[in-house]
Protein 1
Amino acid sequence: MILFRQRPALVISAGICILLICIALIAPWLAPYDPTAGNLLDRLMPPFWQEGGSLQYLLGTDVLGRDILSRLLYGARISLAVCLISIAIAAVIGSTLGIIAGYMGGWVESIIMRLVDIAVSLPAILLALLFGVLFGPSFSNIIIIIGFLLWSQFARMARGETLKVKQNDYIDLARTAGCSSLDIMFRHVLPNVAASLIILATLQVGTVIIIEASLSFLGVGVPPPTAAWGSMIAEGRSYVISAWWIAMFPGMAIMFTVIAANVLGDELTDLINPALRNEIGI
Amino acid sequence: MTGYLIKRLVELMVALLIMSLLVFSLARLTGDPVALLLSDYATEEERTTLTQQLGLDKPLTEQYVIFITAALQGDFGNSISGNQQPAMELVLERLPASLMLASAAMIISLLAGVPMGVIAAARRGSKTDILIRVFTLLGQSIPVFWLGMVFIYFFSVQLGWLPTSGYGSLVHLILPATSMALFTIAAITRLTRVSMIDALSSEYIKLARIKGLPERVIIWKHALRNSLIPLVTYMGTFFAMMITGAVVVETVFSWPGIGRLAYQSILDRDFPVMQAVVLTTTVLFMLANFAVDLVYVWIDPRIER
Amino acid sequence: MILFRFLPLFLIQKCNSFSYGLKNILMRGYSAVLVVALLILLSACNNGGESSIDDNDRLVVAMPTFGEFTFLPWNGSTGRKLYLDPIYSYLLYIDPENGELLPGIAQSWEVSEDGKTHTLHLRQGLQFQQGWGEITSTDIQFSIEQMIAPEAIAGPSSVLRRTIQEVRAPDPYKVEIELSIPDVDFIRGYLSNGQSLMIVSKSYFEAVGQEQANNQPIGSGAYEISEYDKDVSITLRLRGDRENLWRTSPDFQEIHFLAAPEEFTRVAMLKTGEADLAPVNFDSINVIERSDLQVTFVPRNWTPVVRLGGLTERYNNPEVPWSNQLVRLAMNYAIDKQVIIDSIFHGRGVVAGTDTPSRGLVNIEGFAYDPDKAKELLREAGYPQGFSMRLKTFTTSPGAELPIVAQAVALYWEAVGINVSIEPTNWAGLRSAWITGNATDVAWTHRGFPFTTPLAGLQTSNYSDSLFSTFADNITDDYLDRIGEELDPGQRQELVMELANYLRDMGSIVFIGHIDEPYGASKKVGHWPTINEQTTNLDLIERANLD
């Protein structure tokens, strides 16, 4: 309650994020129809409030007569799963490298950080496209592509934060007490940099969802008939004028989610580690 | 400075090497360009001939060595499809359109983003600040192709103010540049706001206030100058991202940039063009980062060289 | 070089962005200067102004892509015919009203008894554009020789290379084509405007060389090239020497082609009047008709099908369930093709029993919708519980609807127990999987073309020697050989029908329908005599009377 009065935006955005995750989890019970089964005779029905729409399909149907509402609910699952898994992969790889670089210093650090510099300066999206076309669009490939696009940022931040933590006395103490480097990195450094990394991860949610949509547009998104928000928009791209609801609703879902995640990230930054703002920059 | 330049150069070389290897091998795995060149009635014999003609029957390592030695001499081979134009020529033909679009988007982002960020920071917590924040949140939450379509629908189809698509004159540039800019406007606004807030709470600003300098001068001169550094850091990345990230915008607005060329070459398995595009953009990315470094040194000579 | 010209701009912009913050007082003035400077820079890159031709005299066509960057007939794909056909002329034309052969550059033609020597008598006095002289037999000879050169990649070059033994030019107005294998339908099959054998000027080509001929085509058609901006626009104008217009006298002074890869953008261009004609998707038809626009259809111009891998000797895979004929039949019976045509294709098509909408084959009856029979057949074949399979899909033009068709087919198959996972791919990826033998365990959506003769179509898909065949066995090979050798047209047609019926009965592929191809058009566009067989005929479009 106090938290709400102090930081309403934090509570509301966190609430929306939790709600979204719940929706994703219980989608099968919420959705009125099978998201992949359609009826060609009911295709392109508008939402119920428009002329020609019916209460049978609240948000209308798509090109194959599939219920948009059901696809939207199931889509939350796929889109959030893509987000969480790809960010998790990027975070694990990036932070591990970053912490090692920051903690070990020396040539290890320069190699890792040069690698990060290079990774940042490569036209990654082209490689991602190439990879997508090469291995074909699939759920796991998208996760790999997105993870590949994101890891360097985690590495940079983890290293920066590790350098700060390293200056603390307890690290020296641990070292003199005979803890191995691995031990120190995991037991002492990681917990202290975790908060910053979590914030970065939250802020990446929006990016991932947008990337997923763009990849779908270029034909390397989550393959049909699976519903994901990005691929739903991409499928509705030719229908922006004729059947606006196909792309509009997933578009709005994306907008809501990204805004909620970004606000949450911002608020967490302010709450936990205001100094981070400059480093994340966004 | 020399040391710095050498370091950069080495980095560029390593990046180019990595990229050339990656593109080369990924490309060869994606399939066989011969398949697309053969006509529907083709026979096995024709396929063998064509494969030999293109040199695709040689072992991969040999192909790579041939490619890299020629590339070092500036020869990226000829496009496989159609009239077999030199691949690098195709890329350079498209580069002006890409740079034009990216520059325009960048300028729009800066012209809109920096002042908004400054105003939001100066009036922190006010309604204006909230409004600007809402705008930045929206800007970062709309997929750019979707925005582009909405723009076309609204400004071209409904209002008839601007052409839907195409290339040639300035009016054609407005919609694609603006749709591309929206995301970066948001990013730059947030960046400026955050660093302005920091700058405004620093000691020397307090000092300037005590000295009685007008608030306008404090904000727009002293504080802004110091909050530009993080902005400059991201500038290189933004610009580079715009050049390749433009694939989507170029498709929606029929813009003849290198993003679309890259995408098409991937779809056509046009290896030489693919390699030329990717390596060119790598160089562009590196140059952008290099330019950023130079600007850095210029802003703040204390930064190590 | 271009890179270096633009690098300063790029650096200036970076520095300016910074200075802009410094010059506090002048900020507004400065940014104004910055903008103006950039506007000048940018507008300096413009490519000149609009043409002076009245809007009413210009036809603007938006197309997804120009294809390969070349105007040489033998150097690229047939997708380019839309803008090449008005420039070049053909030896013969297909009458857009009834499909009969009409004289073109060739005034008359005859076939020897053995079906091997084809003689063409040329019309006299036909002139190439821009003063490149009269069309003579050497130009025909040259054009054909380019088409069958080893490096030619255009559609028919492969088959022509195999069949043509020699091209002779005994006198300026007579051409003799000697075939190595008899083909009485050769002239109709490969020399008309349904194919890609456009006639180029030999003397022009030899004078300027391949590089210039690539970008500056000289033909003998009604339109000549005026401007070409790679991947942006192609402008054709009525040929300057009007007295040499010979086949058509078009209403439009200028045809302006714009490349617009995105369907949405093309529809928007039609709505704003930026384009007068553009291929569109079926689901855009309603939007277009609601505006002040019209939709015209090229009748029965393509045939969506699902091809099944592993059914030829070259790509044989006995493991796939559909190697059993009963399974293939079940897959055909399981789909309600009429509903697919009525919904996805707005009723503009007929259920098909072949994979090409070629004349004479359109009438082969397709399979009825009978899910119970499908289930029974599956049971009989030993798949009572159905099976799982992969279905690849991609878009083409026409054929933007193929992925939707794939999903619809998957839904119908699901209902009889066939579990389908859809894999989006692209044309190049599929084709390379196909010819490397990596597509023997999958099915894929595909599009059949209107071939100029049924034989040409059947040879592609059903001849063991063809790299891109999907169903071939001894029987089909035998039929095709016999059809090739048959000199009597009636007998030949009978054999073609027999083979087509055999292919249908075998369930050689999964048939869907013969479908129209929709074009959105402005009110400016009047009567457009068009027929399938890939005769795009933009020079025949009449301007509507707008009064």
Protein 2
Amino acid sequence: MLLAACGGSSGGGSSAAVPTPAPAAPPPTGITKPEAFRFLNQATMGATTAEADRVIAMGYEAWINDQLARPASLELPNLQAVQPPPQNSGDLHRNRVDMWFRNAVTGQDQLRQRVAFAWSEIMVVSQVGALANLPYAVASYQDLLARQGLGNFRDLMESVTLHPAMGVYLSMLGNQRPNAAANIRPDENYARELMQLFTVGLVELNLDGTPRLDGAGQPIPTYSQPVIEGFAHVYTGWTYAGAPSFGQARPTPANQVVPMQLYASFHDPGPKLVLGGVTIPAGQTGAQDLDAALDSIFTHPNVGPFIAQRLIQRLVASNPSPAYVSRVAQRFNDNGRGGRGDLAAVVTAILLDPEARGPSTASTGKLKEPLLRLTQLWRAYNGHAANGSFAAFANPGPFLGQGPLQAGSVFNFFGPDYAPPGEIRALGLVAPELEIATEYQNTQLTNRLRTYAFRNSRTAGLTPEDIVIDLDAEVAVANDASALATLVADKLLAGQVSTTLRTEIVNLVGRYGTTAADAPNRAAQAIYSVVTSPEYALQP
Amino acid sequence: MPPIRPSRRDFLSIASTSAAGLLLARPHAAIGQMVGGSAPFADYRALVCVFLFGGNDSFNMLVPRSTAEYDAYAAARQNLAVARDQLLPIAPTISDGADYGVHPSMPGLQTLFEQGQAAFVANVGPLIEPTTKAQYEAKNVLLPPQLFSHNDQQDQWHSLRGRTISETGWAGRMADLIRVNVAGQQLATNVSLAGNTLFQSGGDTVAYSMGATGPTQFAGFGPAGRELEQRRAFERIINAPYDSIYARAFAEVQRRAVEAADRVTAAINQLPPPSTVFPTSPLGQQLQTVARLIAVRSELAMKRQVFFVSTGGFDSHDDQLVNQPNLLGNISACLAAFHAATVELGVAGAVTTFTQSDFGRTLTSNGDGTDHAWGGVQVVVGQAVRGRRIFGRYPSLALNGPDDVGGGRMIPAVSADQYAATLARWFGIGDAELASVAPNIGNFNERDLGFMV
């Protein structure tokens, strides 16, 4: 599959013997390891020492540009390669989640994977519900996000709109022109959620993401019910490609991974009110209508600040300042070369912004999601199973409160405006990830991290499916509790460990014996204490 | 016409039969003073909110059967109509002139209703003030913002916030109001078995969250030796000072989790589960756990509890005819089982179960499903419910009729505030405090819809 150019730092490896002058050593970037970790926990599925070394050597911008050039690690080709193909949707979804973890833990396109994860929590589809029996569609949708998540937003929006996974999830697939005699009117589901959740939101925004207010100090709705109905009429006539007829369309492994097809006679031919006061004239084709409708969204002034706010929240900070949102929204509106919706430029702006790179304060950053706490552990400690698969953890929901493309609804695992009671709410701030950090879910997560901290490649009685971590380096120093604490803190926290946590680790490790059999448990104990700590849960 | 009793008489009847429960519940005064006037509740009462996520198509749950009304229903619903002869008939003790039946998948609910253990509240939804179609069309009435949007309307049901921003829910505010009256409780008044919810978010009080089958304990935290030291170390780590508000908030949840898990687990394990058999669905599991928690209310010194359980899948844009029987059948079976468990535990009169949902759905079809609408029908179950009645007002289901703002979206006849206030009064919230639970209640003549005895 992937295996694009490895490393990327050598510059050598070309076939001919033409001597190339050694490039001049780049100027020192001055990036510290904690700074590199902070950056990588925003830009990847989890910081590692090896990747931090690359960032320190290359600098942030060069690292981003290197990542942008990498091809996407995909899921679908691997699902399709399994022979004979599993007939059971549950098995196929297991393969899908396996691939998601493989790409998250070992993919070389870490920025793409992280941004695709962000999009999967904004433009949500889910295995839970109508897509339970369409695993190829969900894998293909994830691949779409990995391929196009750093492309142009207009293209992304159109690909998402026409993808059968979204078509099924928000019921645009099979949506047809009105039938007045039967009181049947077009389905409003996708019409509503594309605007409300994926692109412009409910109220008009200033460039900095704050709501515009009318003369009475009230927010101004972005659209009205007639506009939703207009879009609902736009999205008529589409279903699985290549079906014998509109009404006979059924999913197959092939048609659930290619864009939906227009069946012209099921498309409403009338005029349609869309955004920005635009009325699409009657008599256009469905494709023309779709273009005009999506253009009316793409050109709406809300998209820049709305997407800036959403992506910053997923990557960097729960509470970006209006100025930060404004800077990123400007980049959405113009990438510097006159281009609108350039997502590579937007993500670069998000990651290089002074608010992302400047000093941490009490309210900068965010809480890491449970999945990212786990993938960071697995990236740092070579999480793997002997059979190479992560399928043993294909249903993380009960343990993490989330799983890859497994949200409970299009509203994602948590909402962008969730304000936990207490200090954060009192400050008028939000912390979306805390919505799933309930007493129950935190306990489940803590226990699952315990399982994966203690289950290592030396554990007795492993099955080939068991996901383990490698503790060789830790075992080597395990009987020196202080050295062990230092090593673990270095790998997981870039050495930035509180005195309390370090002291407790040393104390707890000292409670174990010092035989060879104790060594992995001493190491696991140190890792467990770190990965369940508040300081590890924080993405500063 | 809908039977709505005078609320004054209603109040007196409650006061005379259950003086302690109501009259001692003067939390407003108690909170103002913080000393004196803070007598604990003498009895036990629990509210159980069953939230139907996605927007239940409840005009297929309670359906008119009499000819004229059924014909209007069938004309509006077309291919989504339930056949008249399939409806399970019910016989309300007070008629509004029409006959009704419940969806054929809901025999349990039919039985509860006929036994006087359940009532419907018809055409209830978020409103700020009484709203007519003429006012709606003339835009001269205050409306909840973002009608027809899932999360906004869920928030309305949870918070009753109207047009103001509120980060507390009405159950959270009830818990705030009564906190001195329940001071000895060993568990938060609000317990969720279905995740964090605005409904239970208080200003001063915090809900406790557990899983569908109860709380879970921390692995490796034993009572002695290294395992005890593990627990102590964990506690010291989460009790340490953190610079970040996010780390602090995370640690705070961890503290509550560690603190409550053992106690609640020990309490719940003191008694075997009620012998009542529950459906194995997630909602059935949640309600069975609620029954187990209610069974050990004395062990935990509980006087007032609000439980939040939920089930999803009601956003039936697609395949409604296929999915709705299962969805409604599950509600019916779960409500019936839970009520039977409260009878078994001898608390059927102290536990009131009620539904809420994002919104009703369009009477018109989008082909094989329905879209987001507004008013709908909710169910209230328990011995303290004035059962076998339909409260509120069942709307005219005629398209473009007096209750339809378009596509078969019904303007609520009664408000979510009235629905909540009725439950809150039964729960022990005094009249003077009702407006802090249901902020828009002052805009409505009926502060109490009369469905609680």
